[in-house]
Amino acid sequence: MSRQKGQMSIELRKLIIKHTEDGWSVREISEIVKRKHSTVHDIIKRYKTINQVENMPKKAHNKIFTEADERYLVRKVKSISSLQPESSGPESSLSHEEGSNSKDDRFFEEKQNELMARMLKRPILKPFVGLPPPKIKIKPASTELVWEKNTEPM
To answer: Where is the composition biased (Polar residues) (predicted)?
Structure first.
């Protein structure tokens, strides 16, 4: 395939269509426009079949996120940025580019997630773990409670 000379302007294409409608031949139009007759013929053919002079837009790629997902992500980012008002988006991206590695960040986040999962699964620690509960004695003369340490193992 040979190298292209460049795209033809839309005004030039419209001029070719106008001359065609006036009854000029393809060879005569190609001499006026100073383009190859095959190029002029292709422009006329496209106009007659599709009725279009401009370039056709390319089909957009499939979206990764749905609209609901995008709204959810925007809400999350806004809530995180509201918690940290001193750092803005560009500043955080600059700090990220300077010194951190994405692999390190992922490793750190995984460790944090594992720690949180372990903490949530762990039962709540009681204050007397491994020791027997204290004995409470009530003195009959007063209403004060007296705590004694129990030194005997259970």
So the answer is: 80-93
Threshold 0.90, pTM exceeds:
no
Helices (H), the chain: 10-22, 26-33, 37-50, 67-83, 89-99, 102-121
Burial class, 43, CB count within 10 angstroms (exposed 0-12 / middle 13-18 / buried 19+):
buried
With left for phi above 0 and alpha for psi between -120 and 50, is residue 112 left, alpha or beta? alpha
pLDDT means per 10 residues, the chain with 154 residues, are: 71 93 94 92 92 82 78 78 56 54 68 67 54 60 56 58
Q: How far apart are the C-alpha atoms of 134 and 149, rounded to whole Å?
A: 6
The rounded distance, in Å, linking the Cα atoms of 138 and 81 is 56
